[in-house]
Amino acid sequence: MDLSRRQVLAMSGLTLAGAALAPSIGRAATPRRGGQFRFRGFTPPHFDPHLTASYTTMLNLSFSQSRLLKHKAGPNVKPGTFEYEGDLAEFFNHQDDTTYVFRLRRGVRWHPKPPVNGRELTAEDVKYTFDRFMTIKGNANRHMLKSLAKVEAIDKYTVKFTLSGPNAWFLDFLSDPMALSIVAQDAVEKFGDLKKPEAVIGTGPWMLESHQSKVRTVWVRHPDYFVKGLPYIDRVEGIDFPDPAARLAAFITGQIDAGPEFPGMMVRQHDVDVVKAKRPQTRFARFPSNVMNHVGMRTDKPPFNDIRVRKAMSLAIDRKAISAATAPLGVVKNTPVPTALSAWAIPFDKLGEGAKYHEHDPKDAKRFLKEAGHAQGFATSLDYATYQSQEIIDAVQMMVKFWKDVGVEVKVNEKPYGAYFASAYQGKYEGMMFGPQFPALDPYNFLAQYLPGEPKNQSHVNDPALTDMILNAGRTLDEKKRRQQVWEIQKHIAKQVYYLRMDSQIYQAALDPALQNFGPNLGYDYGGRLMIAWWNK
Amino acid sequence: MLRKYALKRLLVAIPSLLIASVIVFSLARLIPGDVVTLMMEENQYAQDLAEMRAKLGLDRSIHTQYVDWMGRVARGDLGQSLYTGKPVLRELAWRLPVSLELGAVALVFAVLIGVPIGIVAAVRQDTLRDYVARSGAILGLSVPGFWLGTLVVVLPAIYFGWSPPIEFTAFADDPWRHVAQFLLPGLLLGVASAASIMRLTRTQLLEVLRQDYVRTAWSKGLAEPRVVLKHSLKNALIPVVTVLGIQIAQILSGTVIFESIFGLPGMGRFLFDAITERDYPVIQGINLVIVATVVLVNLVVDVAYAWLDPRIRY
Q: Do B261 and A138 touch (CB under 8 A)?
């Protein structure tokens, strides 16, 4: 479809009014081409981003696929911040609260592989991708774009998105490496779906060369990548090996170039000293984790429908003791949006009244229990899964002890991960549940767990005032104003103690020092972060 | 006579296999809770629950499912991996040789370590060498393989800056590197079996060394190596052959741990991953192959036993 004269003029105006989307290439020194990067790889169930919610698929696709927008990357980006910039989109503009128009870069080439054979990417490809994303049966990530009503290819390089209502988080979702990479219709038609490795065809910086399940995945440089000169590294190899001790040994002995633990190319806290001693040149980057464990409670039923009981349960927990036992190199106190997402999390000292319920005060806990009519305590249950993590097991055992100290007897139901995921994680439990939340990169995913009807609402929160506040924030396009709203929401949540938040550990990203211009961060966008990096050795 | 015996054993093996197949088939279905829901929630293996049930054949009666499954197994079809989407048999085709190679190397180490030490311990009974050998055997039997494997991977990395290669190398790419990557896991996997073999070799040899015909050999003035190795060892090793059959089953189960620690893409690791990913067709397929291998090996061992000692009949 061609643009009309009126539309062209409108677009010209948009060029000025629209957001600048030039990719940032922070250069720490003179870039060099060549070399290979080896990391601990992950075998995905398959490669179709629209037919799985598995992070392993998205992580692998981050090397080969592009999105409309992407998160800025590089050594100057503060970990935990996710500012977006153009990927395939040259610029965008919202004509009104529900209409976004993106102009695509010209001359973007698909990988030189059949059936696309390096043809140019067009707006029709983008439209096809989003139509498939919204309509394909079995897309577990469809909820990300539930406000999307229509996608139109206005002309060869212009795409228009119409939303069913204002959604201030829309651009955050578009830039999320989770599932929103652009795919080729030709590939879907040739292979039936995009599950097979040969169907991995994108416009991204590297091309999938080979994939051997549970052994290795290899990518090679895309010669016609649309940002000239990028990527600098010629070959990327993800080596999949399951044993944590073997992974540590592999990093110490230089068989891989980055810390092997997920996410963020890190090493475990208790391995840091060994790494410092045995691979002393390792470059470390410390930043808080966005994985936040919490205790969910049935706030729709007694005794947890009483705010005094929830306050008592929180005050009974000695979080410092748990952190000392499980994360020796430090933690951060969490606010309802994890502290790791520093652009949106309210500073803990500004949390207001709710902050005090994060402290350990068994005396006050007993007082609240007495006021709530539970002077002799009560009995309840806690469902959890170990996630094969000693830290989680330790935390549960310690919490049970702390609750017992104030008179609450907690029966622990340890469940296999699958059973836990299908029950407690979805809010199906009797008393309490405990576990990590999905480590999202945007605040909305954390706020959604307070909205009635959302599967993530594990505590069965139904607070009309809070619901309004969250929905209002979603309609506020002014980011500064929205941030203020999100802070107010967090204050309200903390005061109501709907969940018992635990502290998050500090990640220790570990990298070969010869890797230049690489900034570690949270999330799955391994390819996006590596694209601008080069070797200096 | 031997042929008749072999035929009899074969006939006994068939019901064993059938019973094992029923157990393997039932295990996945005995897990509490709705497995299909769990598989969908975790891995999105199908577009909806109905398709998932149809994919697993769970939309039919259990008898029909079993008969259908066995029918397909008889035709060499073990189903399709839910995780990779490929036929289980095709996946096994390139993974089974890795496990067999590892198992073979482990068995060679087990025999090379166990038999000579067993001989020395028997011949030098109640000496320091015997005590050391027996203590070593008890240690070999009691140390868990996963612990030993982890130490062997981590300690050299910490103290010598070396660890076994993490990348699997195919034989066609580099034959020496390919063989070398099996030596360490093979040695560790063989240690526990070597301990069993050593203890049995010692016991059996001690018994044989007390026989009249051995005393005659000594009295004829034959040299010790000739008495022990030529006249005694052959008879002492017959029960060891039977134990080797049992050890093969142990070694096969040990591959699950060692392939994971050493990054070998064999059947054991495939099983480990399939359990993690709730890939039930793979779990069923691999267990059936393992059971069939064990039954077959034991059949071969029993027949070999009868061949080695013609007096033995059941």
A: no
Q: How far apart are CA B139 and CA B308, in angstroms?
A: 32
> Using CA atoms, how far apart are residues B59 and A531, in angstroms rounded to an integer?
47
Pairing label, strands A36-40, A235-239: parallel
Residue of B85, B270, B272 with shortest CB distance to A195 = B85
| ipTM score above 0.85 | no
CA angle (B270 as vertex; A214, B282 as ends), nearest 5: 125
B72 to chain A, minimum CA–CA distance in Å?
25
Chain A environment of B161 (Cβ under 8 Å): 252-253, 278
Mean of the pLDDT values across residues B223-233?
92
What's the pLDDT at B42? Answer: 58
What is the rounded distance in angstroms from the CA atom of residue A531 to the CA atom of residue A307? 49
CB contact under 8 A, A243 and B260: yes
Contacts of A46 in chain B (CB under 8 A): 84-85
Whether the pLDDT of residue A4 is over 60: the answer is no
Burial string for A113-139 (b: 16+ CB within 10 Å, else e) reads bebbeeeebbbebbbbbbebbbeeebb
Q: Does B169 touch chain A (CB under 8 A)?
A: no
The rounded mean pLDDT for chain A is 91
Between the CA atoms of B213, B219, B220 and B225, what dihedral angle is there, to the nearest 10 degrees?
80
In this structure, what token pair is assigned to residue A478?
A: 């002014």
- The pLDDT score that the predictor gives to residue A24 is 41
- Give the count of alpha carbons within 13 A of A4, CB side only: 2
Region for A373 from its dihedrals, namely left if φ exceeds 0, alpha if ψ lies in -120 to 50, beta otherwise: left
Check whether the bond before A452 is cis (ω within 30° of 0). no
Is A281 an 8 Å CB contact of chain B?
A: no
Please give the pLDDT value at position A15.
Answer: 38
- What's the rounded mean pLDDT across residues A236-260? 92
Cβ–Cβ gap A195/B261 under 8 Å: no
CB A187 within 8 A of CB A199: yes
Mean local confidence (pLDDT), A95-113: 94
Are B107 and B193 in contact, with CB atoms under 8 Å apart?
Answer: yes
**In this complex, is the C-beta atom of B127 within 8 Å of any C-beta atom belonging to chain A?**
no
Residue-by-residue DSSP string for A179-235: T-----HHHHHHHSSS-SGGG---SSSEEEEEEETTTEEEEEE-TT-SSTT----SE
Are the C-beta atoms of residues B57 and B67 closer than 8 Å to each other?
Answer: no
- Closest to A252 (Cβ–Cβ): which among B43, B158, B167? B158
CA A251 to CA A257: how far, in whole Å?
7
- Alpha carbon distance B266, B278 (integer Å): 18
Task: Read off the pTM.
Answer: 0.85
Interface A-B: count of C-beta contacts within 8 A = 115
A52 in B contact zone (CB under 8 Å): yes
